[in-house]
Amino acid sequence: MKDKKQIVFYCASHPFEMIYKIAKIFKEKNYETVLITVSEKDRFDFNFYSKAFDKIICSNFQFFKPNLKSLFYFIKKIPSLIKFIISMKILKPYVVIGVSGNNWQLKLVHKYIFKKYPFIYFPYDIISHLYNSKEKALKTTKKFEIEAERYCFENANGITHKGAPDELKYLDNRIHKNLKIVPFQLNFLPYCSKEFTVPINKDKLSKKDNFFHMVYIGGFPSDSRLTNLFKIILNQGIHIHAYVTFKHLSEKNEGEYISRVFDEIMNNKFFHIHKPLGPKEIVPEISKYDFGFWASNLVDGTTIEPLFATGNKLASYLEAGIPFIYNKQLVFVDKLMKHYNLSMSFNDKNLKNLKKRLQKISWEKIQKNIVIARNELSMEKNFVRLENFINKVVDFNKENS
User: Fold this and answer.
1) Which terminus of the chain faces fewer neighbouring Cβ atoms within 10 Å, N or C?
2) Cα distance between residue 258 and residue 253, in whole Å
């Protein structure tokens, strides 16, 4: 019997829902799927991801800032680290997909473990889009991480990216000068999964109390930017339900973080904090709300990330059958939503009139357009593009090795 082609995903942090969706289809198509993650087993939903992967290689190791405590931790974990490296060495991948996270990890595993195998770089977030110069980048990002991003762009056999189709054209002459990016590139969005998608929920909370209900999911910045937007919405008598995720905080630190970040609105009767749910459980939960919310980083001449960005919110809100309010600065998201007649953008001025705008919406038309959008933006429909791209990269690598 012919051996299955082995698709290896190296996630240089915790794995993402998008990776689960991709791997699940590979597994269903009779590929062998392997997840490698530099994480301790209890720091991500191991049972959930095991449904998409035939094998999960977990480092049981976390990286911390160097100090005496972390030195003792490192010494204690050396056997786990050695076992982790050996487990990678014995793999025979058809292709390796390196997901950042931490680019320095991808550089190391490419150079010293997977050098002879086709390697596809998936920059989940692109440093070069966040800063317009290396000097500015170095204020918050380590030099070796910046250099590792360049290495990955120039030494991978192919690149997949989840933003706008043309976003890679804007990499050069920002923090990287004379960047020689590899020619094999694929734009692949965080698509909806049929496994996650739920029917349009007709039993909305707003039908019971005649108030609009908005939901926010995902991480939350520690500054006041997003909280200030929430205040504008809350002042219009719109409920906000927040399901905030904390992937790197202990339960104790989560409470302290919530108290600090939401201090100004915590006692507002229209604001509700909920416990975060898993990627599959969150979708039916939020389907009872009227719309989602998606803000962005400001385009201030330094970051161009909002111009091209997408994220898992795109899929989760559509899977739940709800439209979402988004910042006008999310240029590619705006273009995408306009295509499906789902444009619900805001700026600093018209956010103050959000309630009046929502009252004029034809929700019946919105719901029909959501069904069309999530069908066309489904992982199942678009997967063949990724599979063909990977085969093309592998074939080219074989011919030229």
Assistant:
1) N
2) 9
